[in-house]
Amino acid sequence: MRRQREREQRFNTILRAAETLFADKGYHQTSMEQIADLAEVSVGTVYFYFKNKEDLLLKLMEEIGFHLRKMVGSAFREADASLDGIRDAGMVFFKEFCIKNPERLSIFFREATGQSARLEEQRKKQFGKLTDDLVDALERVSARRKIQYPSPISAELMAVSIMGIYERVACHFMLWQDRSDEILTIAEDAVAFTIGGVTNLMTLGKAKQPDDG
Amino acid sequence: MRRQREREQRFNTILRAAETLFADKGYHQTSMEQIADLAEVSVGTVYFYFKNKEDLLLKLMEEIGFHLRKMVGSAFREADASLDGIRDAGMVFFKEFCIKNPERLSIFFREATGQSARLEEQRKKQFGKLTDDLVDALERVSARRKIQYPSPISAELMAVSIMGIYERVACHFMLWQDRSDEILTIAEDAVAFTIGGVTNLMTLGKAKQPDDG
Amino acid sequence: MRRQREREQRFNTILRAAETLFADKGYHQTSMEQIADLAEVSVGTVYFYFKNKEDLLLKLMEEIGFHLRKMVGSAFREADASLDGIRDAGMVFFKEFCIKNPERLSIFFREATGQSARLEEQRKKQFGKLTDDLVDALERVSARRKIQYPSPISAELMAVSIMGIYERVACHFMLWQDRSDEILTIAEDAVAFTIGGVTNLMTLGKAKQPDDG
Amino acid sequence: MRRQREREQRFNTILRAAETLFADKGYHQTSMEQIADLAEVSVGTVYFYFKNKEDLLLKLMEEIGFHLRKMVGSAFREADASLDGIRDAGMVFFKEFCIKNPERLSIFFREATGQSARLEEQRKKQFGKLTDDLVDALERVSARRKIQYPSPISAELMAVSIMGIYERVACHFMLWQDRSDEILTIAEDAVAFTIGGVTNLMTLGKAKQPDDG
DNA sequence: GATGAATGAGGCTTCATTCAT
DNA sequence: CATGAATGAAGCCTCATTCAT
Fold first, then answer.
1. What pTM was computed for the model?
2. In order of start, what are the domains of chain A with their CATH numbers?
């Protein structure tokens, strides 16, 4: 069992090294040797724990996706079916996740993009899970309020839109510029924008309902 | 003169070949030889017109950025200072640009990401211009309505958010899935979401104003 | 005939451009395009006047070799059969040629070395002519003084040695360091060294003569 | 340990292959693939041991420079402060070094010339060390004999001249022509020339001394 | 399990030379 | 004669991956 623990530690050390380097210099600009060097293991060892270079990024995406869902997704689930879940999730994302894990932002939203087809698949999958969480939350809200969104894909569209807001706002204010000191304002405005969007679609939907009934 | 024209045509043929291949198989998965082959010129000719491979993508980004501004940006400028500009721009983006130029979406939002530092700089620049157009439009609206947004960065944040919505919605429904047949609904819902977000921030701003006065 | 003159001028302009660039950045680091640019003609024109890139260096070597022989070689010929010819030649080489034509030194002694086989042949030929001049001068001296050098190849060896001294001293003090201000001392010492060498071989030869008679 | 030894052997095999090819066909005419082939390793392996092609020549120059100093330089040091050191060194250079290592002559005096700037730097450095050895020897002679050379740079100039003689005589009789069978005569004449030159400058210096006192 | 030397395919880029206009 | 766009062979180098020790 000590073996087991050591193995997991190694696995982690290597993944952390990859994370740092991918975020710092970019996926393509990082070589397996550099990862091995930073993790203080040999190249062969990296290949013992990970199938190949792509696998490292795949695993990182999984990990970050899971991390995001845990933080952001749980805000939805814990919240009752009001819009508070949306609000809380946004706050957690900007004020917690972005501030504490800028390198994860970089990997999840930037480095994993424009690479191989399998990576794109993984991105799709991870984004999909987060989107699904959001769709669930949004549908619970509409169910509770007994309203219908204007179109059958409204919930999905809103979820995707919210993801887009998170992504671009984070990239813009955290990666391209470093304005983490303004994060409170950013978070509040962004969340307000989000809430406004959802509310508007709910209003439009309600207006539509008589047609349906 | 004919020389000049032929030169420009050649330049274009090569750029079109690069566009097609980058969008299709990805930037890294495309070799200079493949581009030369598709353009029906020799490798040397590609290098006569473009400094290197990166330069091809740089030039494409510029072109697409310009194209986007022309289509989307002009919607803002032509509109009076109401939210109609925002609405029109969204409609143009989804119903015109996305439908007609999926490969440009792919390049602008996907392939140019996660590559070299200079490319990231270019992305920043092109996104910046589009964002600036949006900020202008949003500030004209607030000026006309004599209101103030809740925070000094609200306009910028909204602009960035809207860009995020465009980006992700386009990637989700056009690139990851092909749901171009639902584009009308998508466009309407997305624009409604956008308008809702802006409206909400205007409302919050207005509410704040008495404090300021 | 104006045609003729213009042609020669073009030929010269191009050769001067090549000379400058070869001396400055080196033969391999200079491209035909750069030569054409500096000469303010098109690449095609360079190829009209010179067979290829190597030809440019070949012609330059010839020109410089001729120049050297004219300056240095004539000192031998004009001098009577004393060692004054050797002395004068050295003085002319260091005080005139080196000072006024550092770029020719660079090409003749450096850039033309370590390139193609044909270039090496040309070097050999040009060095050969200069060596022959020297051999002639040295043999005239021995004939006049009715002495014999210690070995049948002594004259050749001295000629080669003197060339070696010229070459390395020039490279050392003009190209590697810039000590042209000390050129007077350099020239005098170098010539004295040369004269000493020749004198010594004459002495040794004389001593040997009784054995031969 | 065996690993270590094998590594060094590999390093050497590759360097020997480069040496042979550079001397034979020239630096620019040799490709990395050819070197790898001759060394019976893959191209990648060459790059594992050497940074790049230039590095191979750089390392060779260092090695040859060291070799030359060991053989020629030690003759100076071992000799007492008479001119015998100069004589012995010359003999060793022509009769040992040139005969046994013609390919090293080719590389040191020919191939490393007229290439990149860094290579020229290395040439300067290696020549500098040899020159310094000679300067030392010459100054010890003058100190012992209590004489002064005619000028403050006489020692340096003589050292450079002697290097020039070695270089050109070796190139002329070993590389351009193959007259290794006459090496004894060549060596004796060349050394006599050298000794004559040094002696002459000593005489001139002595003659000057009364003026100085 | 760990190591790290070895591999070699594949990519980017340069540039001397040609030739239609 | 002059031009300069086009060619394409050839070279350097990288780096993900493997495997014997």
1. 0.90
2. 1-50 (1.10.10.60), 57-212 (1.10.357.10)
